[in-house]
Specification:
CATH class of the largest domain: Mainly Beta
Helix content: 10-25%
Radius of gyration: 24 Å
CATH architecture of the largest domain: Beta Barrel
Structural class: alpha+beta
Strand order of the largest sheet: 1-2-3-4-5-6-7-8-10-11-12-13-14-15-16-17
Number of helices: 8
Distance between the termini: 38 Å
Number of domains: 2
CATH topology of the largest domain: Porin
Largest sheet: 16 strands, antiparallel, barrel
Order of helices and strands: HHHEEEHEEHHEEHEEEEEEEHEEE
Length: 434
């Protein structure tokens, strides 16, 4: 109930901000509204265009006007509807649907008439439905990156970020999704399997359990940056996060990351190398029932990833073929997934006049700890994914997806997942994205 009240207060605050800025704009919507639709249709053959201008164009203008004043409001609904063929938990095929509703407001301090370089962000989320991993497949890597174990409505993020020295320095603090800052490749965001967006043995607080933290980035030149951050290691997304952030029982996750961003003959790339540590007591993995469980005071790991465009279509900025690779390592005596390997390729704008569409494939391999495999009788799991992303317009995106999961959940079974992701943007794009 408390969370719903918080979201309600935020919604009311947003409405108050809207009303204070759009009052002057409302007058332009009143033209021709007193006449009946039949009368307008008879008097003007271009009636349809006028209706679209009145009810869609003016709304977009109002929205963009707010964004220019420093208030950018975004609403996105993402749904993954998938059917399984085989699986570890059930061989019966069944269609499952998982949805994520994001409601956010971004505040630009410079456009608000305050100071330069400041950004505030508030994100409320509702997660509902049931996914294939928990109900049918039982795979280790999750075929959908929006699947969660329980339905929630929560205040997922609230943070403030300040850029300094012509944006060469970036400082931030608040409740945030750490996977956005560390280990993420831009092209990996088009895949549905969760291992591509967050390597499965990196304990970065992410959906649905974003955490209180602080982060900093220094970019002395355009092609290199160094980033670090520290986050609560035991947060739950449906809690504001302050209680666990300062009690220290679950420790803290600390990141260090270097990124190179070269442009080779106009072909852009990104190469990252990073490390993480997680303080707090952690049980080791026994090789058998007689093995004694030992508690370690910390956990740690290394990771690296890259994406590189290798072919670019003429007279375009980002259309063409790109490759990506991922690798992460953790000690095998305290982590179920000791090593992870990921690879993929994607072509943007392959079909003529479909410049924003993306065709892609990838493979994610979870290399399990030898002790864990011996104790549980498991095998390494591999997921192979194929997708085509249709960007119909600024509002609707449809993405058919097919995945093959080998050694599903570490077993000797093979599972298949066929699905469709739909993304609906309720609000028009902000000026920065147009």
């Amino acid at each position: 109930m408390q969370k719903k009240r918080i979201l309600a207060v935020l919604a009311m605050a947003g409405l108050m901000a809207l009303s204070s800025h759009v009052q002057a704009e409302e007058e332009i919507l009143t033209d021709n509204l007193d006449a009946s639709p039949i009368q307008l249709a008879l008097e003007d053959s271009d009636y349809k265009a006028k209706v679209e201008e009145n009810f869609y164009g003016k709304t977009k203008n109002l929205y963009n006007g707010l964004a220019e004043k420093g208030y950018t409001i975004e609403l996105y609904h993402t749904n993954d509807s998938m059917i399984n063929f085989g699986g570890q938990l059930s061989k019966t095929s069944s269609v499952k649907s998982m949805s994520l509703l994001d409601m956010s407001i971004t505040l630009d301090t410079e456009r608000m008439g305050l100071w330069k370089g400041g950004t505030g962000y508030i994100l409320g989320e509702t997660m509902y439905g049931k996914g294939l991993t928990e109900s049918r497949l039982g795979d280790l890597q999750y075929v959908s990156n929006i699947e969660v174990t329980d339905e929630r409505t929560q205040l997922s993020e609230f943070w403030y970020e300040q850029k300094l020295l012509d944006e060469r320095i970036r400082l931030g603090a608040g409740k945030h999704d750490a996977s956005v800052e560390f280990g993420l490749l831009e092209m990996a965001g088009d895949y549905l399997n969760s291992s591509f967006t967050l390597m499965p043995n990196i304990p970065a607080p992410t959906l649905p359990d974003q955490a209180i933290g602080t982060w900093a980035e220094i970019a002395p030149v355009d092609w290199y940056s160094f980033k670090t951050g520290i986050f609560d290691g035991g947060s739950r997304g449906d809690d504001l996060g302050f209680r666990t952030a300062f009690e220290g029982k679950s420790g803290y996750v600390t990141f260090f990351q270097n990124e190179l961003k070269p442009s080779i003959k106009g072909h852009k790339g990104s190469y990252i190398v990073g490390s993480w540590t997680h303080s707090g007591n952690l049980e080791t993995i026994p090789a058998n029932e007689e093995d004694e469980v030992v508690f370690k005071k910390s956990n740690y790991g290394l990771y690296t990833a890259f994406q590189q465009m290798i072919y670019k279509e003429q007279d375009t900025e980002d259309q063409g073929l790109s490759l990506m690779g991922q690798f992460s390592w953790t000690p095998s005596n305290r982590n179920e997934i000791a090593r992870y390997y990921g690879a993929g390729c994607a072509y943007k704008g392959l079909i003529p006049k479909r410049d924003e569409d993306v065709l892609g494939m990838g493979m994610a391999l979870a290399d399990l700890s030898p002790k864990y495999k011996l104790a549980e009788g498991l095998q390494n799991e591999a997921a192979i994914e194929f997708f085509y992303k249709f960007v119909l317009n600024d509002t609707i995106t449809l993405q058919p997806d097919f995945q093959i999961v080998l050694n599903n959940g570490g077993s000797e079974k093979t599972g298949f997942a066929l699905g469709l992701r739909s993304i609906i943007s309720i609000a028009p794009k902000s000026p920065e994205r147009i």
